[in-house]
Amino acid sequence: MTTAIDDRAGELLAGRIPFVHATVVRAQVPASARAGDDAIILADGSIEGFVGGQCTESSVRAAALGAMRDGESVLLRVLPENAGEFPEAPGARVVVNPCLSGGAMEIFLQPRLPRPLVQVVGGSPIAAALVELGAPLGFDVVREAPPLPPAAVVIASHGGDEPAAIRAALDAGVGWIGLVASPRRGAGVLAELTLTEEERARISTPAGLDIGARTAAEIALSILAEIVREARAGRLPVAEPGEAPARPGEAVDPVCGMTVLVGPDTPHLVVDGEDVWFCGPGCRDRYARTAGR
């Protein structure tokens, strides 16, 4: 990353704000960007940095939001309408951008999403092992209640007011709640609560996959394995600070046929009382001339 983008990425990661880091890998003349140029794309489609002109940005915005949604990196190949020879890149996503003046480009899009936040309740050896093992598995594990609802809560207090801890997690909307207890004691704790079917489905007790765990570290591993399974199944939503920005709307440029993201800076015209959106000023001006405006 360039220094400015690196600093900005650090701020966003610290604030648990999702973004996509875009890096130009290759560019052909007369593309305005050069290999190594990079930018950050936020969830509202805004771009900070430089990865090419407005036509390239339109393709990058749309692909970046898709990468953010899927959580998968993308190698984006942006080609002009009559592109010449450009080396193949297996597995890349290819976009033919009719408004490019020339110069094919490859841009690597890497989503940087907040790590799932796991709260551990209790001071048992299992709780301590969860904190130690969580980070290498890609989780932010905390003891104190975070300002945002965590993705998962593990209650490993071996007593205490476990029903109150479960109820607090349920009311906060936590997607997975693990209670460390024997089957008999776990059933007793749940019997103290009035649960709907939906709430009961969010509670796992005894917490953890059955791997024959005996030690505190092994039990913590089994619990984290269950959380990984839930995360991979998409059942651990990551809470974002404040209200998540709405995904920009999409429109089709009537001149070149490109799908563009609609935002404050997207070129457009009002035709017969309706907005018409364009990938760039060139298509907008061409449409205006054709329409006699």
TrEMBL record:
Residues 13-77 form the XdhC- CoxI domain. InterPro entries: MoCofactor_Util/Proc, XdhC_CoxI, XdhC_Rossmann_dom. Gene3D superfamilies: NAD(P)-binding Rossmann-like Domain (3.40.50.720). Residues 119-227 form the XdhC Rossmann domain. PANTHER family: ALDEHYDE OXIDOREDUCTASE MOLYBDENUM COFACTOR ASSEMBLY PROTEIN (PTHR30388), MOLYBDENUM COFACTOR INSERTION CHAPERONE PAOD (PTHR30388:SF4). This is Xanthine dehydrogenase accessory factor.
